[in-house]
Amino acid sequence: MRSPITVLSVFGTRPEAIKMAPVVKALEAYGEPIRSRVAVTAQHREMLDQVLRLFSIVPDEDLNIMAPEQTLYDVTSRALLGLRDVFTREKPDLVLVHGDTTTTFIASLAAYYQQIPVGHVEAGLRTGNKYSPFPEEMNRRLTGAIAELHFAPTATSEQNLLQEAVAPSGIYITGNTVIDALLATVRPDYTFADPALNAIDFAKQEVLLVTTHRRENLGEPMRQVYTALKTIIETRPKAVVIFPVHKNPAVRRVVAEVLGDLDRVHLIEPMDYEPFVNLMARSTLILTDSGGMQEEAPSLGKPVLVLRDTTERPEAVEAGTVKLVGTDGALIVREALTLLSDPLAYGAMANAVNPYGDGQASQRIAQAIAYHFGLTGERPDAFIPRA
């Protein structure tokens, strides 16, 4: 009888955990032919643990590398040496990584050093600018150069990989696993633990959900964003800003200076995934420099203004679910006020087709792995967005 195929999923941050959790569950559900194992670097600790608890995932290996004021050098070196030992112990047939973090690239590199095949979930995203987002864009490209299996969320991602001479046989269009996680977590009857959030009348107020964290936006660009938010609040009497403020002191300092004393601005601590996506589902408009929220919000019918000049997710721009506004304060104000005051403009974005998934991406990935290793003769069908 053939031995099970050992698939070791490696991740280290909250966004990775959110998007890999449904994949881990799909691999577990596949059954005996696949032995699913999980290793975390804990590049982020507390935020990672929140997601692990939510999805009931207990890592088989935990490097716990996070340290105060860690740099990219610190994360890279600790993860590389730690994963060397993990892979030696686990002897996986496939290392599965996600997206664009330092953990993603270093896990791929460590696997390459031991000649272990790599599968890349959310493969093929590109901006074309190696410094934007930094260091994520190069993490994606370098991981793509090492990977053997490429789980592209969209046809656009597939085309990016083909242009880089990736073999078509190794590419699977799956949709994005973040939609799987989202649909399993949002509930109409959800109650927030924070009384201030429960006190907001989401039906009658214009709720702007804001997140910022990108390195390239630190300093004056973020100040322009927050000044624009102040203008919006002063212009729209029913507008409310809910802003889970990133832990980075450089973010918090400017937020406090510009928005700290304003009525109808709720500056709160970063939220666990479950309350956050339920807050997203009840918000009116989202302003963010996050990548993942560009995928999640369209599934919830929420327009997104992206506080970046580039995006590795052009499908959302083309579909009309998001708009790139960068950090130009005047443009942010103009676009936000248009959406809040013009029902036709709002509806055009809110009702656009979601190009990112149907909730079945994780099952397609598990099926693709089984197909690659000869456990099944059926290659999974590609994800095609519904018109």
Question: Your description of this structure?
Answer:
InterPro entries: UDP_GlcNAc_Epimerase_2_dom, WecB-like. Keywords: Isomerase. Belongs to the UDP-N-acetylglucosamine 2-epimerase family. It is an enzyme of class 5 (isomerase). This protein has helices spanning 14-30, 46-54, 72-90, 102-113, 136-146, 155-163, 177-183, 195-198, 220-235, 249-259, 273-282, 292-299, 314-319, 329-341, 343-350, 361-372; strands spanning 5-11, 34-40, 61-62, 94-98, 118-121, 149-152, 171-173, 206-211, 239-244, 265-268, 285-288, 304-306, 322-324. By secondary structure, it is of the alpha/beta class. The strands form two sheets. A seven-stranded parallel beta sheet has the order 3-2-1-4-5-6-7, with helices on both faces. It is globular and about 65 Å long. It has two domains: 5-176 and 357-373, 3-Layer(aba) Sandwich (Rossmann fold); 193-351, Glycogen Phosphorylase B (Rossmann fold), CATH 3.40.50.
State the main characteristics.
single chain, 387 residues, alpha/beta, Rossmann fold, 2 domains, seven-stranded parallel beta sheet, six-stranded parallel beta sheet, 16 helices, 13 strands, 44% helix, 15% strand
Multimeric state: single chain
Order of helices and strands: EHEHEHEHEHEHEHHEHEHEHEHEHEHHH
CATH class of the largest domain: Alpha Beta
Distance between the termini: 45 Å
Structural class: alpha/beta
Large-scale geometry: globular
Quick overview of this protein structure:
This protein has helices spanning 14-30, 46-54, 72-90, 102-113, 136-146, 155-163, 177-183, 195-198, 220-235, 249-259, 273-282, 292-299, 314-319, 329-341, 343-350, 361-372; strands at residues 5-11, 34-40, 61-62, 94-98, 118-121, 149-152, 171-173, 206-211, 239-244, 265-268, 285-288, 304-306, 322-324.
